[in-house]
C-alpha cells in the first residue's frame, strides 16, 4: 500500500470531495419512473461538464457506463440501462468514481426510491452502520482484520450476511491498489495500518445468504444467488496520526469535514 505525501493527500481530498458532490447532486433525480441510464447521463454530464473530471468507470476494463447502478438484489457493478426503470419501494446503490488531476475519488451510497419498505430500510441502515463501525477501527497500529471483524460482527448480529467475493481496496493514481480490505475477519490479523495510507471500505451486506453470482452475459452485474436484497455503502479513508479522515464524506454525515 502506498503511504501518501501531504501533496498527494491534498489531491485525494479534492477527488474525494468531488465524488461526494456527485452523490449529493443526484439524490433528487432518483424517483419512480426514472431509468438507470438517465441517472448515468445526469451524473456523466455533471462530472464532465460541471466538475471537469473523468468518470473512472467508463471503459474501465470495458465497463460501458460512467457509474454503477445496483438495484435491489444487485450486489455491485450494475450497468445502467434504458430498460431498468425504478419502481416505488426499490433500493439502489449509486457508485461514483472520478479522476481529478490524476487521482481517484471513490464512494457509493444507497437511496430509497419513493416510499421505503421497512425491511429494505432496515437493511440499508444496518449496512451504513457496518461502514461506520469499520471506519471507527481505523488508526495507526490497527490491523485490517479489525475493520473486517467489526463489520462482520454487526451484520451477522443483525441476521444479515457479508459478501466475501468483493472488498475494499487501496486507491490513488490507480483505481484499485493493494491491499484488499475484507469486510470480514479476525481482530489482530492482516496488514498494520500506518499514517497516510488511503483505501476504501465498502461493505456489501445481504438480507439472505452471502452467496452471489456473476451475470455471464454482461460480465459485470453481480446479484445475490437467492434473489434477496443487498445493500452497500462506501467511503474513501486516509489513516491520520490519531484515527481516520473520511475523504468522501457528504454534508449530511456526522464526520463531514469541509475542505478548501
Plain-language structure description:
- It is a single chain.
- The chain has 260 residues and is of the alpha+beta class.
- The chain has one domain: Creatinase/methionine aminopeptidase superfamily (Creatine Amidinohydrolase).
- Helices cover 27% and strands 25% of the residues.
- The chain contains four helices and 15 strands.
- Strands 1, 2, 4 and 5 form a four-stranded antiparallel beta sheet that branches.
- A hairpin with a 2-residue loop joins β14 (235-240) and β15.
- α1 crosses α2 and α3 (118-136) runs antiparallel to α4 (144-157).
- The longest helix has 21 residues, at 6-26.
- It is globular and about 45 Å long.
- The two termini are 27 Å apart.
- The model has no long low-confidence stretch (mean pLDDT 95).
Summed up:
The protein has 260 residues and is of the alpha+beta class.
**What top-tier CATH class fits best?**
Alpha Beta
Main sheet characteristics:
4 strands, antiparallel
Helix/strand class? alpha+beta
* C-alpha-based Rg, rounded: 17 Å
Form type: globular
Give the number of helices.
4
Mean pLDDT: 95
CATH architectural arrangement: Alpha-Beta Complex
CATH topology: Creatine Amidinohydrolase
How many beta-strand runs?
A: 15
Order of helices and strands: HHEEEEEHHEEEEEEEEEE
Distance between the termini: 27 Å
Could you state the CATH homologous superfamily? Answer: Creatinase/methionine aminopeptidase superfamily
Question: Percent of residues in helical segments?
Answer: 25-40%
Strand content: 25-35%
Poorly predicted regions are none
